[in-house]
Each structure stands twice: as C-alpha cells, then as structure tokens.
C-alpha cells in the first residue's frame, strides 16, 4: 500500500524489517527472503538510492538464479529491476543487455502483448530516451500506451506513467505543444481520478513546468514547481534527487525573472544536495554550481551600483 501511494520511506522501513525476519526464520536462500531483498531494493530505487538498490538486487539475483533458475519469472523480475537501476546510474550498455535478457524470456514465456513484456518495452523506451534516441523511444512508448490503455484503461496508473514518459520525449525533442497536451492529459487524470498523492503526479507537473519555462510562461512554471518542491519534501525527502531537480528548476525560473536572491538560495541548496548525492564532478552538480556562480556574479554587480 505504501509503495502504491509513493510513501517509499515507509516501504523501505517495512521491507527492511520483513527481510530481517525472513533471514532469521527462513534462512538466507529461502524464496521469500529473496523476494524481500528485491522489494527492499525497489524501495531504495524509489528513494533515489541507486547504489544501495543495485547491491541488494545483485545479491537477490544471485540467490534466485541458484534456487529458481536463470529463466524463472521471479528471477527475470529482478533482472528487470537491475536493468532499470543501471540505466539510472548511466550504465546504459549494461542496462540494455539486461533488458534484452528479460525481453527474450518474456516473449518466449508470455508473448509480445503480455503486460510484463510491455513493461519491459516501456522501460527500454525510457533507456532510449536517456541516450537521446528519441524516435526509438517515441515508437516504443506509443506501442506500450496502446496496449496499456486497451487492457487496463486510459486512467490506470501504469498507462499514465507511460504517457508521462512519452511527454518527456516530446519535451526533450523540443515539441513543446505535444508535450504540453500530453502532460496536461496526465495531470488532469491524476487530479480528477487518482489524486495527487503519487510520485508520478509530481514528475508530471515538474515536466509540464519545464515546458512552461521553455515557452516563456514563467508564472505557470513557478506555480507548478513550488507545488512539486513541497510535494517531494512531504512525500520523499528534502535531499532526494527529484526534490533537488525541482529546486534547481525553480531557481532557474527566479533567475530568469530577476529574483536573484531567491535563485541563489535555491541553487545553493541544489548544488549542496547534488554534490552529496552524486559527487562534485557529476554534470547535474556542475550545472547547479555554474548557475549559482552566475547568480552570485549578478548580485555582486548589483552591490557595486
């Protein structure tokens, strides 16, 4: 329940306790123990703690391959999780190899239109988007959306998550009108049908805010980003990477509007948090540092006037 609502910190705590109990009463190699490992790894991933997540997934996968076999359905679920984490860590070639392994297994066992196969297709589309292969990503997202909406309905959380992925691709391609329409469709569904207590809703409005920013609609961007920052702080954590992304983007809005003191505070927070989470040489950290120095330069100039 907590995971479905996006309460990932609570999920981490519960799965951690369950794993301790399983190890004590069932043993390290029991299938339920390995499932709890995978669930805990998923909770870490949802919190943005990808290194921890990867370590747990690798440990769980080793046990599953020994106990259940390399092609077992539960084993392939873990391979899929591990592929997603590697993609988020920027290890795209490793991720693609893992996705291919899952695809082969699912096509063989279930067929091309099975929901588990489609989930892999959706995540592979996300991987293509991460690498800038937007045309490939768009085709895969469209295919997945068609199956999800036909099978689960257009307002199902999985269908909407995939729709947001397609909107992200449109935004990155610079097709802002399509992106705005697609994000807005998902936003409306969350606000009228599913509620705003979900992480995907925050991802949706953050993406839509970026579209507003790029098209010069700064007031709309500010409103959505303030809502996103507050939502992430409440539902995830102040130092979660998703929170910091929204903080950085809000700083960019303020900087563009000439509200330099507010922008400085936000860029400093984003820079500090990103350095802690990603290290000083990560591109996101350096981006926040660069924006921070530009804003401070403007503020120093104003002081001399």
Explain the layout of strands and helices.
Blueprint: H1 2-5, H2 8-25, H3 31-46, H4 50-67, H5 73-88, H6 92-109, H7 115-130, H8 134-152, H9 157-173, H10 176-194, H11 199-214, H12 218-235, H13 241-256, H14 260-278, H15 283-304
What report would you give on this structure?
This protein has 305 residues and is mainly α. It has three domains: 91 residues, Serine Threonine Protein Phosphatase 5, Tetratricopeptide repeat; 83 residues, Tetratricopeptide repeat domain (Serine Threonine Protein Phosphatase 5, Tetratricopeptide repeat, Alpha Horseshoe); 80 residues, Tetratricopeptide repeat domain (Serine Threonine Protein Phosphatase 5, Tetratricopeptide repeat). It contains 15 helices and no strands. Helix 3 runs parallel beside helix 5. The radius of gyration is 21 Å and the shape is globular.
Defining key terms:
mainly alpha; Serine Threonine Protein Phosphatase 5, Tetratricopeptide repeat; 3 domains; disordered N terminus
């Amino acid at each position: 329940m907590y995971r479905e609502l996006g309460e990932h910190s609570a999920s981490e705590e519960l799965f951690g306790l369950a794993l301790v109990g399983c190890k004590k009463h069932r043993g390290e190699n029991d299938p339920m123990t390995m499932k709890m490992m995978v669930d805990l790894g998923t909770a870490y991933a949802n919190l943005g703690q990808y290194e921890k997540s990867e370590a747990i997934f690798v440990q769980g996968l080793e046990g599953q391959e020994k106990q259940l076999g390399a092609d077992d359905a539960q084993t392939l679920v873990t391979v899929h999780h591990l592929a997603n984490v590697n993609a988020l860590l920027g290890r795209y070639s490793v991720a693609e190899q893992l996705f291919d392994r899952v695809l082969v297994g699912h096509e063989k066992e279930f067929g091309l239109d099975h929901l588990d196969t489609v989930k892999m297709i959706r995540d592979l589309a996300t991987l293509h988007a991460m690498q800038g292969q937007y045309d490939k990503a768009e085709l895969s997202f469209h295919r997945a959306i068609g199956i999800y909406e036909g099978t689960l309905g257009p307002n199902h959380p999985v269908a909407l998550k995939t729709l947001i992925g397609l909107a992200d691709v449109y935004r990155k391609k610079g097709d802002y009108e399509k992106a705005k329409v697609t994000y807005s469709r998902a936003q409306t569904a969350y606000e009228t049908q599913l509620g705003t207590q979900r992480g995907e809703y925050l991802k949706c409005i953050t993406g839509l805010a970026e579209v507003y920013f790029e098209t010069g609609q700064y007031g709309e961007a500010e409103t959505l980003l303030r809502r996103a920052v507050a939502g992430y702080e409440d539902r995830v954590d102040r130092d979660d990477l998703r929170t910091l992304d929204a903080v950085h983007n809000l700083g960019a809005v303020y900087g563009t509007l000439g509200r330099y003191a507010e922008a400085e505070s936000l860029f400093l927070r984003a820079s500090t948090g990103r350095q802690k989470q990603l290290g000083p040489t990560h591109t996101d950290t350096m981006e926040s540092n660069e924006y921070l120095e530009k804003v401070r330069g403007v503020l120093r100039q104003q002081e001399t006037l």
